[in-house]
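Example 3.2
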Amino acid sequence: MSKEHEFIKMIKQVAIEAVQNSKPTNFYIGNVVSEIPLSIQLDQKLTLPEEFLLLTRNVTDYTLTMEVDHNTESAGSDENEHSHPYTGEKEFVVKNHLIKGEKVLIAQVVGGQMYIVLDRL
């Protein structure tokens, strides 16, 4: 066998092994079965505990800083009615955590040990 033929054969073998060893990402629809601790059921046989889940901001509580510039609504009685400016940067907490019964879109990390909870459905 020529050296060129051996080289081509070796490259083909490496390519075949690379394809066999690659594990493309799988996507699942899960059901939140518990909030604290978080657990998500993928099917009748597989429920993922929190330690196997990576959560995106789409499914967690987070703090958001916003610029505000307006007046508060009028408050008080007719005689003491007043409002005041509400301006500057303010922090708001966005309550976005998962709730029992919600359906979620999950991607399996290559290798299969961790799962990314991408968003709710």
